[in-house]
Specification:
The structure is a single chain. Helix content is 35%, strand content 23%. By secondary structure, it is an alpha/beta fold. It has a single domain, classed as Rossmann fold (3-Layer(aba) Sandwich), CATH 3.40.50.1470. Strands 1, 2, 3, 4, 5, 6, 7 and 8 form an 8-stranded mixed sheet that branches. The protein starts with a strand and ends with a helix.
Length: 199
């Protein structure tokens, strides 16, 4: 069976590492940590990837049945993420039906998580780029709530700021919960994962 491609959205480089826009990177980093695998530059893909497997015992676990999993962080900026995702789908011979994208979501409060299949891009430049590149929006999404900007701050500026200290304390917990949700979706399907994690 074709592998799962798990894409965490974000911007590369230390300048952006702790921004709200980079929660997708944080979640796939957590999945790589659980699987005890390291990201490395994927030549020609404009991305860093890590390969592992998932079984009913979890990501990186041994035993059967198992499915192959590719974790991916684009080395492009957010608005060109689709270039890396399109290349990766072709390289790993998989399809949008086996694609799951983890991204920040302005329309959900911090601490809220929504799993879904398909839909629009809701103004998210990473999703917009992926849809344009692969010609479809029919892929899984894990939407990680970051909330709306306060006052008159523009969303484009808000997503490129760090989480405030009050939220930073809980960030690790929420990242781990999103990683749990991804594992359940892959192992038990969307309906089970939605019932357990959608808030």
């Amino acid at each position: 069976m074709a592998p799962w491609l798990l894409v965490g959205l974000g911007n590369p480089g230390p300048t952006y590492a702790h921004h709200r826009h980079n929660v997708g990177y944080l979640v796939v980093d957590e999945l790589a940590r659980r699987a005890a695998v390291r990201f490395s530059r994927a030549i020609g893909l404009r991305a860093e990837t890590a390969q592992t497997r998932i079984t009913p015992a979890g990501i990186g676990a041994v035993g059967a049945p198992a499915e192959q999993v590719v974790l991916l962080k684009s080395r492009t900026f957010m608005n060109e993420t689709g270039l890396a995702v399109g290349k990766a789908l072709a390289y790993y011979k998989t399809t949008p039906a086996r694609l799951l994208v983890v991204h920040d979501e302005l329309d959900l409060d911090f601490g809220q998580l929504r799993l879904k299949l398909g839909g629009g891009d809701n103004g998210h430049n990473g999703l917009k780029s992926i849809r344009a590149s692969i010609g479809s929006g029919d892929f899984y999404r894990a939407r990680f709530g970051i909330g709306r900007p306060p006052g008159r701050q523009q969303p484009a500026d808000f997503v490129l700021t760090p989480f405030p200290s009050a939220q930073a304390e809980d960030l690790g917990v929420e990242v781990a919960r999103c990683a749990d949700a991804v594992e359940v979706l892959l192992n038990e399907g969307l309906d089970v994962a939605q019932n357990r994690f959608n808030s």
